[in-house]
Specification:
With about 375 residues, the protein is α+β, with helices and mostly antiparallel strands. It has one domain (about 70-375): Porin. The chain is built from three helices and 16 strands. A 16-stranded antiparallel β-barrel has the order 1-2-3-4-5-6-7-8-9-10-11-12-13-14-15-16. A hairpin with a 7-residue loop joins strand 4 and strand 5.
Length: about 375
């Protein structure tokens, strides 16, 4: 009887343990990888990584990112006032250039200190650089200086009084602050191994990020000739009609919302070398019945080549030859290049006239300016 009981107990344990072992084997099977790594899978992962690296390399080849910032300090004293001083962030620009194909590219530029500056597409029509077309928003081709980047200019004020006023960089209230840019179409190119360059633009004439406010378009022509290395001779002209967005003390006969004749002409030359750089220009404008004219000479001498420069500029501009609105301007200073396109500038600026409210005043205007520039690409 006792043996029978032991047999029943043993049989019960065996029957109970069998499903447990089966479940354990099943659980073990589920935990184990269904498809353990193979040499083929590793090769596939390596191939995918290679494709991704190739894609990123192609993106880097076709898309270039550039940027710079200019900030500093300005002390200014007009006439008998107590003077003002301020830290300022003049420009913080970032732009992206995408080379879609060999002949076709696109550029977008934004100034985080103001607004969108440029967006345009270029297409090279000829096999060489003889003819390209540009459409969008970009700098107008008037004058030697306006197409140049502020990072390459010697003075902290950047452009001369003539260029600032006549190209729409901000000092003419009739045009407003347009940063020397406009919306339109451009045909340009160069021949003779780059010695001859031309540009023809058809623009709205209203400035950046704006539709045209009259039925007329502005036509701008520019010719450059580089007979020898370092020397550049430039002539440009603009013919068109403006649409006044504000009243101007320089031209009180033109009212807000009025269309007026707006023509400009310029001729200048520039020379660059390791020892010194110099450029000068004569400009003339006509707005309605008012005539303006001016000229400048600006340059730098290398005290320590690629490191330390002495800066100087003389600038004359008459905002309206009929209203005795002439101004003389002188700039003297130094600049130190501490890394490639990065520099520190210190300059003294004198002007023989200034504006006070809605009045043009012949009087001393002194300024002391300091600026740091950081640029990449």
């Amino acid at each position: 009887m006792q043996k029978r009981h032991l047999s029943i107990i043993a049989l019960t344990l065996v029957l109970t343990a069998t499903p447990i072992r089966a479940q354990e084997e099943k659980d073990t099977t589920q935990i184990a990888p269904a498809n353990p790594p193979t040499e083929q899978t590793a090769e596939q992962e390596a191939a995918e990584k290679s494709k991704f690296k190739k894609f990123m390399s192609e993106v880097a080849e076709h898309i270039k990112i550039h940027g710079y910032a200019q900030a500093g300090y300005t002390y200014q004293k007009k006439g008998d006032d107590k003077g003002t001083n301020t830290f300022d962030l003049k420009r913080t620009l970032l732009w992206v250039n995408a080379q879609i194909i060999d002949r076709w590219s696109f550029l977008f530029m934004h100034d985080f200190n103001s607004q969108v500056q440029e967006f345009y597409t270029d297409f090279r029509i000829t096999k060489n650089n003889a003819l390209s077309v540009r459409f969008g928003q970009f700098k107008n081709a008037l004058s030697l200086e306006n197409p140049l980047s502020p990072t390459s200019m010697e003075t902290i004020d950047v452009y001369s009084e003539s260029v600032t006023f006549l190209t729409g960089c901000g000092s003419d209230p009739l045009m407003g602050v347009q940063y020397g840019r406009d919306l339109g179409l451009s045909l340009f190119g160069e021949t003779n191994d780059g010695k001859f360059r031309y540009e023809f633009q058809v623009m709205n004439g209203q400035g950046i990020n704006k539709k045209d406010k009259n039925r007329n378009k502005d036509f701008i022509e520019r010719i450059e000739w580089r007979p020898v290395k370092g020397l550049n001779i430039v002539a440009s002209a603009q013919l068109g009609k403006g649409h006044a967005i504000d009243s101007s003390l320089y031209n009180p006969d033109i009212k807000v919302g009025e269309d007026y004749t707006r023509n400009r002409y310029s001729v200048g030359l520039g020379y660059t070398s390791k020892a010194f750089n110099v450029h000068g220009e004569f400009l003339q404008g006509r707005d309605g019945d008012a005539r303006s004219l001016g000229g400048y000479v600006t340059g730098s001498v290398a005290l320590i080549p690629t490191k330390l420069d002495l800066i100087g500029s003389y600038d004359f501009f008459n905002f309206n030859t009929d209203l005795d609105m002439d101004q003389h301007k002188g700039v003297f200073g130094i600049q130190y290049w501490f890394y490639k396109r990065c520099r520190v500038q210190l300059q003294y600026v004198y002007k023989s006239a200034y504006t006070a409210g809605y009045t043009f005043v012949h009087g001393n205007n002194h300024a002391l300016m300091c600026q740091v520039q950081v640029r990449f690409n």
